[in-house]
Write a structure and sequence with these properties.
This protein is α/β, with parallel strands linked by helices. The protein contains 10 helices and 10 strands. Helices cover 40% and strands 20% of the residues.
Length: 246
């Protein structure tokens, strides 16, 4: 009887401690630093616990389609959230919460912050997020195409699975320079590391970043975080990280 009660207690406690009580938020890699602050502020104001899963927007979307237990997708674009809505996986059509900015960044002392300098023999590797799954990677390709440098630099490009891996290439020196999100270089963790320039907005399509609520049993709870993302408090955090908000 004691053994049975012990087993029952473990089962009950296990059910109570499962992460199902809070929210699991799929977060595009460019939003990693800003989202930590937003989540912390939301948790304090709502007492709702949140877990973040960070990756490229494309990979997160693929995981959601396959049934990953995420409650919201905070994407780096509109394309992937729209895909989820059209598949009937998201509750509503995507809502744009911010516009991202692209920068060229290097931690090398010899780096001259310009796109033209990428053609220098001093630059052996250029880090870029996979344009097939990461919107900031697609924006970087657009910049190189506008400069008519994509073909000549193709052999130097090193692709990260997401902005996070791209940042690792840059910080480690595996790539002498790379394209990343402005929110990264403005973060406390990366601020004052190396040199960077913000790229002209006319060189790439606007990086409209959207969020959707996944249609599951937690959608009412997810709505609380969704609404908070558009609050003045969250907008202030987003602006601090270089995002443009409405």
């Amino acid at each position: 009887m004691r053994i049975f009660l012990a087993i029952l207690w473990v089962v009950v406690m296990g059910c109570e401690s499962r992460p199902g009580a809070g929210l699991t938020i799929a977060v595009s890699a460019n939003m990693q630093f800003a989202m930590h602050e937003i989540v912390a502020a939301f948790e304090e104001s709502s007492s709702v616990k949140c877990e973040m899963v960070v990756s490229s927007s494309g990979k997160l979307t693929a995981q959601i389609v396959e049934g990953a237990p995420f409650d919201l997708l905070v994407s780096a674009d509109v394309k992937y959230p729209l895909e989820l809505f059209e598949l009937g996986i998201a509750v509503d059509s995507p809502a744009v919460y911010a516009y991202g900015k692209l920068v060229l960044w290097s931690v090398s002392d010899d780096f001259e912050p310009s796109v033209e300098y990428l053609g220098s023999e001093n630059i052996k590797h250029i880090a870029i997020a996979n344009p097939a799954t990461a919107p900031y990677g697609a924006a970087a390709v657009a910049v190189l195409e506008k400069y008519a440098m994509l073909d000549s630099l193709q052999h130097k490009l090193v692709y990260g699975e997401s902005i996070s891996q791209t940042n690792q290439f840059i910080i480690s020196g595996s790539a002498e320079a790379g394209f990343t999100a402005k929110s990264v270089v403005l973060s406390e963790q990366m601020r004052n590391r190396g040199k960077w320039i913000e790229l002209d907005h006319d060189l790439y399509s606007p990086i409209a970043q959207a969020v959707v609520i996944i249609d599951n049993e937690k959608k009412a709870l997810s709505r609380q975080f969704f609404d908070y993302l558009f609050s003045p408090e969250a907008k202030e955090i987003l602006q601090k990280y270089g995002y443009e908000v409405g």
